[in-house]
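Thread: Newbie trying to understand structure tokens

Hi all, I'm a second-year student working on a class project, and my supervisor (Dr. K.) asked me to get a predicted structure for one chain before our next meeting. I've only ever worked with sequences, so writing a 3D structure as a token string is new to me. If someone could post the tokens and maybe explain what I'm looking at, I'd be very grateful. Here's the chain:
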Amino acid sequence: MTKIALITGINGQDGKYLSELLINKGYIVHGIRRGNPQADTKDEKNIHFHYCDLTDYSEIIKIIQNIQPDEIYNLAAQSNVKTSFEKPEYTTLTNALVPLKILEIIRTLGLEKKTRFFQASTGELFGNSHEIPQKETTPFYPKSPYAVSKLYAYWICVNYREAYNIFACNGILFNHESPIRPESFVSRKVTKAAARIKKGLQDKLYLGNLNAKRDWGFAGDYVEAMWLMLQQDKPEDYVIATGEAHSVRELVELAFREVDIEIEWEGEGLNEVGKDASNKRILVEIDPAFYRPVEANLLVGDPSKARELLDWKPRITFEELVRMMTRNDINLI
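---
Reply by user tm_fold:
Sure, no problem. This is what the structure looks like when written as tokens:
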């Protein structure tokens, strides 16, 4: 029988890649989104859209009751770490309570044996963990309202799995990017700036902590891991990562190299600048406004469990990812 999937946050980066994957596998795909029904594009004609505010329990339960999904992927979130410090209450309402509502609806409607649930968790749960790399058994130490809200979602998922025998999985997803990543995230901010500076449309790139390291992968690879989790015999939680850490500094160097600009660094701390090696023009400066109140400096995941049990591993390297994103931004210009 044809499977039915429901994706929250379907208009986001992961939602777009996941819906494409599921449609190619023959699924009937439903998506929950906010906005104007008239805004759908021809590219989305194979998706059944439902428009509601995910904080509205009555709307969500009607949607789930009507479509009786075999799989639910909860990707909706306020996922910008910096924004979570500015809007902690909104971040918590969206990130913590929405997965609780969906799990409670699965229980209330008696769908425990039919509907499998995926919760998009995050490597930010580990914060400043002393264990590197981080794996499923590493203690959590969240360092932002975003990470704290996701920690509640993680544990409520585990709780409903154990208490009500719901097939619920947490995918502890480390940073994953793509050409359609919003510009509010540092990866896309950097690749777009490199393209714009090369074309003479922007003078400088302003960044915060150049030394912050992240485990960056490709979103298209990570949605495959989401799907694989819900195809297993029993529900478990998995770290999804590349196993490699790269700094914001490396990201900048690779993006500018893709547009034939070699960056050389000069100075220290807030006074550090990145210059075009060919003409010494300053292209990158530090702006303290982009520093977070608390920084998780080194997040790198150990995907051994996913590799062993899901037979999953990332296909796109960090260098290929930055090249892909930068070339796309050049083409957009």
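A couple of things are worth pointing out once you decode it. The two ends are 45 Å apart (CA to CA). The chain has ten helices and 15 strands. Feel free to ask follow-ups in this thread.
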